[in-house]
Every structure is written in structure tokens, then in C-alpha cells.
Amino acid sequence: MLIKLLTRLFGTKNDRVVKRLALVVEQINALEATYKSLDDEALKALTPAFKERYAQGETLDDLLPEAFAAVREASCRVLEMRHYDCQLVGGMALHNGMIAEMKTGEGKTLVATLPAYLNALTGKGVHVVTVNDYLASRDAEWMGRLYTFMGLTVGNIVHGLDDAQRKAAYNSDITYGTNNEFGFDYLRDNMKFTREQLVQRDLNFAIVDEVDSILIDEARTPLIISGPAEQSTQLYGLVDSIMPLFKEEVDYTLDEKSRSVTLTEEGVQKAEEKLNVENLFDPSNIEILHHVNQALKAHVAFKRDTDYIVKNGKVVIVDEFTGRLMEGRRYSEGLHQALEAKEKVRIENENQTLASITFQNYFRMYDTLCGMTGTAMTEAEEFMKIYSLECLVVPTNKPMLRKDMPDVIYKTRKEKFDAVAEEIISVHKTGQPVLVGTISIDMSEQLSKKLSKKGVKHEVLNAKHHGKEAEIVAMAGQKGAVTLSTNMAGRGTDIVLGEGVTDLGGLYILGTERHDSRRIDNQLRGRSGRQGDPGLSRYFLSLEDDLLRIFGGERITAIMERLGLEDGEPIEHRLISRAIENAQRKVEGHNFDIRKHILEYDDVMNKQREVIYRQRREALRGGDLHEEVLRMVEGIAWDIATAVAVDKALPETWDWDTFAQLMGSHFNTTLTVDASGNSLTRDKLAAEVLEHVMGIMNGKEALIGTDQFRQLERYVILQTVDNHWKDHLLSMDHLKEGVGLRGYAQQNPLIVYKKEGFEMFQAMIDRIQEEVVAILFRIQIAEPEQVEEVNPERTQSNLSYSHSESGAAKQPSRSADSKVGRNDPCPCGSGKKYKKCCGQS
């Protein structure tokens, strides 16, 4: 009672925010006469003047009244549309990073021009996100006339553009596109190999149209780019066929404690000969080297019926601690495929995830995120918890006249559809247009057949063709029109009433079934009653509808039976409608939990993704990665010293065999250390190792020049990171699939996923460092005049994109640099073969 009293006295928070923004509206309106007096050139000249003032230190908030007034005047001249005061309020809400709830027909598309223009003045770019290509193209062309008039550039991102076209669109001041295109471009950019191939700029300001559809409805399905495994499958088989030729201590060494296998020089040469590869450690052959290492590991370090068994044609892991079979789990980084090749069973052709992200985590990367919709308040809690977005209900320009009637409920679905058909026929005879909402395409087609038999001319809209969709929706308000539509179809297009329709009662919205979400029902209702037009909405339901059948159908059935209702006779009462809304709230809460659950798991991946992508982006932007390489070398030098040196033991008693093996496997070199006396310490050993290996690295750098060597470092790091990240994603997928079973052991699956995922990530980082260093120290450097610039053109093909659409692109390819063969004369002029001379280091 106290809360209600205080609300009546002081108004709601929403009322107070609107009142505060209304003061700024007065400032904008005060400028209208001044700006109206300007000629076109003077109005256009405001844009560079605003940009200059921003550069001089004024904030966007300082510029807002004048910028909004300028856009309003330009819109009057170019589009012949003047922003209402309520649209100015909506524009300010968007600029402030809020969600503006605006009823259908209140002009959300025009509202977006205000904050888009203002934020484009920074030069950092603005993204306007829509739900489909049709709306993106329509709005970019329509509103683009306004932006162009004011001296701004406009881009449009739709499916089918090449990288050059995308880059040009993203470099525009304002870029329109769909949520899928923006998200996939972000992922694709983080798979590129040169800075020039990047298409997106930093994520600055995003306006999401139909924000509830994009950030709520589509948030349960992540965007995924996956690549085919056919090539890898064939390569595993090929590499496996040469494994029987390799002999221990001749071609490889085995460390049983760490289960690591290292190729010897002879082993490397044998692999090169058998696989017809000139240099296994050439950057372009990193993938082949990876396959050789995994195949060797599978044959030497993993034993059948100990580490795994073959069951029903599949390799099944045996848990080393419990001895139980781990059905559904797979070894990571291609090891499982190598075992399948070894055992001559079918090599699983996994469509491996190369990159993925949820919409929640993608859109949270923007510096400022905002959105518009006709229905946001039912999901206000989720918008705040997930995106930290406040919702503001923007007052309508004219009072809402639509009447929302109580639901009509029938016993059976057949009775309901008979009643729906009769209602449509009855209303159609009066000339009042009817928009019928269904929750499935199948239902709309069944109703269409029923109406066709009755001779009622109608249109069926089922979201299959976006272009035609807009035309059908736009005509749905004409006299005598009957339109059957799935509830979500036609969003973003206004239904304008035809001549004489307002006298007939406006557009009649007839819903044939309640959706799980009240928001979807409200969206359907919102098609009617735009801009003060009259309208009517009513839902026809049956006890056999899924929502009623699952939630409270028996209780409502008992009420209907007590009332003694005859077959075909409906019940209509606001208490029933309220019970249905309560049922919807339960479903909405359940769906929110699902989305939250997905986000909690993706948040684990997101922290890892940020680390990897940040490193890649720094590398692509020309960052010098030499310091990173030095840290890797120093870390491994210290690890070697730590593995060998034993506290309080004489240096000559240290494990120098292990030292020799580690120096060979990590740095492809040997080092003789004076271990006599007591002066040698772990730190001194690490320093001696580092000094020795840096001499080797500096020699390689001197041979081809600093710039070329920095480029080589960058390429090796990017290639290695991508290979391991791809395998890590697969491992995380398998971990997530199996972690749910931990609940049976009284463990929290999410905590286990976080802990084991972090451990796997740390292990991956260690492997990346070891592999980068190993490659750089084994790589063979060509004579300077033979070296070509390392410029890998990594095209993206044979990739598949999954969310609500799919597309095709190209398989990543790599080009090699020139090199000296192992058996070629050494470039130093000694007359020896390279492998016996400089190639030893």
C-alpha cells in the first residue's frame, strides 16, 4: 500500500526519467525555428562544425540538443517526416544506452537516426542492427538519404558480400546489417592472417532494432563457424601408414613419465621422405607436423586395452583412475583421430568448431549498446541482469485506443478453429481488416485451407520471403483484407489503415494460440492501434493448446464442466486470462534460466576467447611479437633448468641426460655445461641456456634480416595459436557434453567446467609456447636472395556458419616461404650439407 501511495505522489522511475528528458526536448524545440531558417548548405555545414567541436573537447551530451534539432530539420526536408517529441525522448534513451519500448507504429526506424547521427560524429562508427537482410537494406537506403544529406556515409552489410565490400561498409559512418552478419564478421576477422584482411573496426555504438528478438529470442543459440574434417581425416590415414617404419631411439625418443614422444633428426628426415615434404618445419607444414606428432604419440605412448579399448568399431577411452569406460569422451587435438587411424576403425568426421560466440557476449563488447522494441518490459529483468540495460517506456504520440478483449476458450482444438473461421468470415463481411496470428506455419496453412473452402480471399504470410512479407503486411490494413501470419512474421513493417477502415473499428487482431512468452503475444497485438488508430485484439484458445494443456488445463476443464457448457460453447473471463498469463510467466522464467545457463558456460569460454583474440589482434595490427617470443624462450629455458637442477645436490649429480633430451626437443641443439664444483645454480644454468639459444636465434635473424624474421615470428605464432585453439574448442565441447554427469557425483557441473576448462586452457598455452619455440629453432632459413615475403593468403572457404542461417566459404590455405633443403649445400659456404652444418643449431 505504501509503495502504491508513493508512486501516486511522486510517479514511477520511468515517469521521472521521461520528465527529465522532456526538459531537453524543450531545448531542441527552441532551436527548430533557427534551423528551419537555414538553407541546405548551411544545414549540411553543421556536421563538420559538430565534429570539430567534439574534437576540441565538447561531449556528445553537449552537442545533443543541436544535433537532434539538425537531424529533425534534415528529415523534414529529405524524408518529409518530422520527429515527434516522443521520438526525441526515444532517441535520447538510445543515446544513453537504454532500451526504448515504443509501441508499433511510433516510428522506431526514424528514432534511430537521432542517436546514430550524434554518435557518428565521433568517427568511430555506428552499427544499426536489424533482424533480416530486407530490413537492413530497406533502412540503409531509406534513412541513408538523410545521413548522406548531412554529409555522413552509410554502409549495408548483407549476406554474399566479399571482404572488400564489407570493409568499405564498416568504414562508413553508419552501418546497417543483421545480427548474424555482424557476429560472423567478428568471428571471421579473428581467423584472418593479415591486418589488411580485417573488415570490422572496433565495436563502438550499436542500436539494435527489435532488441527483444535479437538479444532474447535468438540468444539461446550461439553463432558457430565450423570447418570440415575431411582433409584432416585423410591426412591422419596417410600419416598413420608410415608409422610402422619408425624405430625407437633411431627415429624418436620416448619419455614414458610425461608420455611425450620427440622425433630425432633421422625421424624428421624419414617423415619428410615418406610424406614427400621438403621441410617438415616449414611454416606451411605445421599441420602435417602436428599430425605426425599425434600419430607417433598414438602408436608409441598409448596402449590398446590399457588407455583405451576398441568397442563396436569405436575407440573408447579408459579412465586411468577408475578403469571405467568414458563413453562419449574423446582425446583432444586430433589424438583420438590418430588412435582411430591406428586401429583401422572409422575416423570420426567431426565438423569441428573453429570459432563461436553467443549474442550475449558479442553485443556486450560494444562500448555502448542500446535497442528499441514494442515489447521490452516483460523481459526488463533479463535485460538488466545480462546486458546491464535499463528499459524506458516511451509515451505514445497519441493515446492508445485499441481494445484488448478477454481470451475465448474452447474445449477442443477443432471447436476453436471452427469458431476462428466463423469469426473471420463474420468480420470479413463488414469490411474490417483481420490479421490472424498463428504460432506455426503448419497451423496457418491448415486455417488457409479452411478459409479457401469457405471462399474467403486471404494472404498467407509465413516469413519465407522477406521482400514479399513486407508487401503483404503493408496491405493488411486495407478494407476487407484477411492476412494469416505466424506471430513473428512481418516485424519492422507498419500496417497502415486503408481509407474508411478507422470507421469500421480499425485492424482486428485475432490470435489462434497463446505463445510461451507474453511478449510475443503483445507483439501481435501491437500491430493494431498505431498512432491513435482504433483497433481490437482477441485470442481464441482451446484446452488442447500446449500452454493450457501443460499449465492448468485440468483446472480450467473442471470450471467449464461445473458451468455445464455445451460442446462448441466457449468460456470468456478475465480470471482465466490472468491464469494463462501466470502460466506464461513460469515458462518465461524457465527460458530465462536456460539462456542464463548457456551464458554461464559461454562466459568461461569468453574469458579464454578474449585472451586469444586479443593476442591475434595485436599481432595483426603490426605489433612486434619478438618480446612475446623472448618470454616464451626464457620461460622454457627456466623450465629446463628447474627440471634438471636439484636443490642441495651437487651439480654433477643432476640429471644431465634429461637436460640433453630437453635441449634437443625444445631448442634442437646441444649444450655442454661445466658442472664441476659447487658454483653452478639453477639460475646460472637457466642464464647459460638462454645465452646459448639466443645466439642461435640471433644468427637466424641475421641471415634474413630483422623485418623478415619478425614477420616469420608473427606467422608461426598465429598459425600455431589457430591450430591449438581449434583443438581446444573441440575439447571444451566434449567437456561440456560430459560434465553434466558430474552431478551424479555431487559435483557442481559448472564449477567443474570452469576448473577443468581453465586447466585445459593453461595446458594449451604451454603447448603453444613449446611448439612456437620448437618450430622457430628447427626452421631452416634460406639465403637472403631466395627469401620471399611471408604473406599467407588465408581465404575462408569450406567453412559453415550456424545459427539461423548457413553459408559457404573457403578452406584456410597457407603459402610457404622459400627455404634451404636439409640435404642442400649450406649457405655459409662451408661445402657441407646444411643439416651437418648450420642446420644443426
UniProtKB/TrEMBL annotation:
It is found in: Cell membrane; Cytoplasm. Coiled coil: none annotated. One of its GO terms (cellular component) is plasma membrane. InterPro entries: Helicase_ATP-bd, Helicase_C-like, P-loop_NTPase, SEC_C_motif, SecA, SecA_DEAD, SecA_motor_DEAD, SecA_preprotein_X-link_dom. It comes from the Bacteria. ATP binds at residues 87, 105-109, 494. One of its GO terms (biological process) is protein transport by the Sec complex. It catalyses: ATP + H2O + cellular proteinSide 1 = ADP + phosphate + cellular proteinSide 2. It is a peripheral membrane protein. Residues 3-572 form the SecA family profile domain. Keywords: ATP-binding, Cell inner membrane, Cell membrane, Cytoplasm, Membrane, Metal-binding, Nucleotide-binding, Protein transport, Translocase, Translocation, Transport, Zinc. Residues 787-841 are annotated as: Disordered. Residues 89-247 form the Helicase ATP-binding domain. SUPFAM superfamilies: Helical scaffold and wing domains of SecA (SSF81886), P-loop containing nucleoside triphosphate hydrolases (SSF52540), Pre-protein crosslinking domain of SecA (SSF81767). CDD domains: DEXDc_SecA, SF2_C_secA. Residues 793-805 have a biased composition (Polar residues). Residues 832-841 have a biased composition (Basic residues). Its cofactor is Zn(2+). Its EC number is 7.4.2.8. GO terms for molecular function: ATP binding; metal ion binding; protein-exporting ATPase activity. Monomer and homodimer. Part of the essential Sec protein translocation apparatus which comprises SecA, SecYEG and auxiliary proteins SecDF. Other proteins may also be involved. Belongs to the SecA family. Part of the Sec protein translocase complex. Interacts with the SecYEG preprotein conducting channel. Has a central role in coupling the hydrolysis of ATP to the transfer of proteins into and across the cell membrane, serving as an ATP-driven molecular motor driving the stepwise translocation of polypeptide chains across the membrane. This is Protein translocase subunit SecA. The lineage of its organism: Bacteria, Pseudomonadati, Thermodesulfobacteriota, Desulfobacteria, Desulfobacterales. The gene is secA.
